[in-house]
Amino acid sequence: MSRTEKVRVLIAEDQALIREGIATLLSQQNDDFEMLPGAADGEQAIEFARRYRPDVILMDLQMPRVDGIAATQRILRELPQTHVVVLTTFETNDLIFEAVSAGAKAYLLKDARIDEIAATIRAVINGQSGLSPSVAARILDEFKRLRGPRVSAKLPVRDGLTARENEILTLIVEGKSNTEIGERLHLAEGTVKNYVSTILEKCQVKNRTELAIKAITY
Amino acid sequence: MSRTEKVRVLIAEDQALIREGIATLLSQQNDDFEMLPGAADGEQAIEFARRYRPDVILMDLQMPRVDGIAATQRILRELPQTHVVVLTTFETNDLIFEAVSAGAKAYLLKDARIDEIAATIRAVINGQSGLSPSVAARILDEFKRLRGPRVSAKLPVRDGLTARENEILTLIVEGKSNTEIGERLHLAEGTVKNYVSTILEKCQVKNRTELAIKAITY
DNA sequence: AAACGAATATGACTTTCGTCATAACCGATC
DNA sequence: GATCGGTTATGACGAAAGTCATATTCGTTT
């Protein structure tokens, strides 16, 4: 994805030195970042988010008045298109899980290099995500626990569809475009379209939206 | 953490060219990797894991005889100290979640650079983890869903839409085309399209199929 | 071995979708 | 009563979806 405008970045961090330092480094890092005035606590982060509508907020977690997690919740409820990247020194399970549940798109530790922070900002803008390796490990552990023991990994195959057709149906239900499906399955776009046509006919629907609805609803 | 011995790496990948290529690149990358003979399918991966006791297995998912996920499960049950790093071209939710549940410590896509792969291998050896940015995003989404709503992560699917927009959303969810919607509401097709565009943006989705899915699911 | 059908794969072509610029309308505010 | 923000409305145009004809591969049947 290419953006014509600059990425508007807000830093919420109570220590002025760190706040200014990161802002300076980031603006040196690349000229496509527009650094907004820094927020010194959670309350101010909310206020500045409302006022400046940042694309990305670098959010510290331990801040006066309103902490970073509460600020994240309130900002995302009001401005859901904002991307919050947590940047903190602490990495307890509780903090990590709460931050992610609050809607943080990435969780970095303060020992991250500035180019990693910049790369993560670009990633979240593109709908991706970034986790420090040790944070990722904790998330994966909890993830496994939450999912519980798998019994049968097999998806119920939709009757009448071939294996290939089912693969494609699954991706359609995830909202993928034909191009994306083609890339994922190493098929030409034309091939995917043809599969879609076949599936549409078999399921007696007119277009992929109806198909997705039917597949979800049964 | 510093290790005195080399890191013993096993590659399980059915395409010989890719297998040899990664092995060569990794051994050039750093002299602390000891590359074991490559496994061409899941069955062989299990056999070689038993024989060579690797520290890390780079595991492809789509392989003949036994797939990568089944191989991961069986290897980790027998040799739980092994670290499995998934390296694949596919990134469907199912594959990712199953791989993680099976015990994979990291999940990389094949477009990763060789130094990223090397860094991930070192990370998992140190009890950390590595996820490609797009994979991390999927994990975090599912993670949030599994933990359940903490506050009210309500997306502005119906709320935040005007009355007219909601009428149109309802018809989209019924699988209607823009022409059909226009006839029903006595609007020009162009007008309907414009409404659809607005709704897509408000709901933060890329196309009407995703929109229908989100409207049904939430 | 030849014939056959089902599954898989592809590209040319038409239709539908989605974006963008633009404008009329209306209630609120100054 | 002029201005402003939000809703409603429209069409031109490039992008994506869907149709159709066609080809290959592979297991099964004759």
TrEMBL record, chains A, B:
Pfam families: GerE, Response_reg. Residues 152-218 form the HTH luxR-type domain. GO terms for biological process: phosphorelay signal transduction system; regulation of DNA-templated transcription. It comes from the Bacteria. Transmembrane segments: none annotated. Residues 8-125 form the Response regulatory domain. PROSITE patterns: HTH_LUXR_2 (PS50043), RESPONSE_REGULATORY (PS50110). The keyword Methyltransferase does not apply. The keyword Phosphoprotein applies. GO terms for molecular function: DNA binding. The modification 4-aspartylphosphate is found at D60. Keywords: DNA-binding, Phosphoprotein. PANTHER family: TWO-COMPONENT RESPONSE REGULATOR. This is Transcriptional regulatory protein LiaR. It comes from Bradyrhizobium ivorense. The gene is liaR_1.
